[in-house]
Amino acid sequence: MPKFVLKALIGCYGKAKVRPQPRSRKCAPHASSLPLRQSLSNLSNSSLLSPEDLSLSLIGSNLFVFSLAELKAVTDNFSKNHFLGEGGFGPVYKGYVDEKVKPGLKSQPVAVKLLDQDGVQGHKEWLAEVILLGQLRHPNLVKLIGYCCEDEHRLLVYEFMPRGSLEVHLFKRFFTFLPWSTRLKIAIGAAKGLAFLHEAEKQVIYRDFKASNILLDSDFKAKLSDFGLAKDGPEGDNTHVSTRVMGTHGYAAPEYIMTGHLTAKSDVYSFGVVLLELLTGRKAFDKTRPLKEQNLVEWARPQLTDARKLDQIIDPCLDNQYSYEGAQKAAQIAYHCLNRKPKTRPEMRDVVKALETVEDLGETPKGVFVFTATPETGEEVNSREVYREVKEKLEKHHVHLHKLRLPRTTSAQSIIHGLHKNCRCGYRGKGVLLPSLSSRHSLG
User: From the centroid of its chain, how far is CA 345?
Assistant: First the structure.
């Protein structure tokens, strides 16, 4: 961390209590950036940086400036009982703020993040986050409420996201598993957040898009967090930003890793990785798996365009409860996002539109329905009705008839032979019959 940057900022906020002017009501919360958003690179690297420069950049942000004592009070002196987790920036604690802490501050739970002085991130990343979230507002970006810059201490205060990160829901099995519709909702929300950053007046490249940086509110609405590695997009005739390669293994685009050339399409690749995680329930990189399956993209991408193979990589936790057509379309979106040629990857706004068409398909199960043919009603009497019901469901879900499973009854045998009569699978057997009268029917 350059000493001239630190000296320019130490003590400037805790004492001066600089409060920007309230944001104009004409500015919608999802509008693009403020008209004159300051450059991240200029503010974080300039040797001429002054307190006035930063306060000017935050005009209209409505950020609160907290003292260290105030944040200790709201977190019970950063008690372990308030501990939420820890990332590259540092530990995070839950707190509660109201007007007693700061006049005009809405009563609400908050997440207080402390910069770890020995961590991988530092003052520059803290400053980038204050600048970015102080000037940008969107429903799919986590809201920064305020910050603290006192002596060597750097803290950030966010809105509290009660459901934590996408990572814990996908990969920590003690959490309730995410159904198909919720996964789509999260993917669309995260895509909207990225699209907003890419289309801001001064483009922002997120650079660290991953499951752990997607936070979820009580309704599973996705919001992007951790903007310490964000960079301004290329300007003028420049096609990319040259920067030191940073990010998380498994998520970074291959061209960025090889050349250090960063573009918005690098974020698109990372989004494709997360979409693949949502589809498969697997981590981007997992050393616990066989060698050929450790890198999720290398293992799964070749199978995304083959409907027969796709069925084998979908997260088994979904238990076939998802739209088969929707899964195919989502897989195609991921496939294009993961293209090794950056220019052929889609824009995030197009990804949002494509995912919304998938969401419109609903959550019609690809997988299972149950019916009962009871002895009391007579199996032969019910055979026509059962046949009609099964056939309708098969046609509705576009399933493969050769995977039909029915009860062990005479009428069931005639049904399975009848349905296979016009099937192209070449079935010539007697059917696979289950022993119970009430059984699960596998829809492809």
Answer: 18
